[in-house]
Request: fold
Amino acid sequence: MGWRWKDEDKIFEIGKKFVIAPPWIETKKEKITFVEGESFGTGVHETTVSCIEFLESINLKDKRVLDIGIGSGVLSIAALKLGAKKAIGFDIAEHAVNECKENAKLNNVDNLECFIADSPKDIEGRFDIVLANIFFDIILSMKKDIDRLTDKGSYLLLSGIVWEENYTVKSTFENMGFSVAKNAFLGDYSTIMLKK
Reply:
């Protein structure tokens, strides 16, 4: 699953602004660290890395973020450290939500809300950016809610998509009024950033 505290003094540089490091390591870059746990998202998986790099490329100041399948909370934490004013996320796993809350405290972000859910159907309002680093079929199953929760100008950052399904996901959202801002093919997966 990647980096954990057991790796002692390992430091991973992510993008231009971040490092993933244990709590006791001092660094000049913005640090993200995690509690010991089981949830996905230790910051070093290729999909997480590409999402953080894409997040760095857009202006997140005062933006509202929705994180679908929040896991450890790493993407929401990065977004908040990049200036977002609020992040809301959910996950089907109780342990992930518990770890996300602990990680928010550990990283000194107090505007991250995470809860247990299997879809965004009960979420209201609009979001400036929607994050989803999950399997492509789950992303597609939530497309109507994603459309409902975004406005013109909103970004959609999708990852965890195997190469073979990249076109399907991309074209599905293009047909819904999104345009591709970036599309990266990684080792095994791909990451797509779209704008409505």
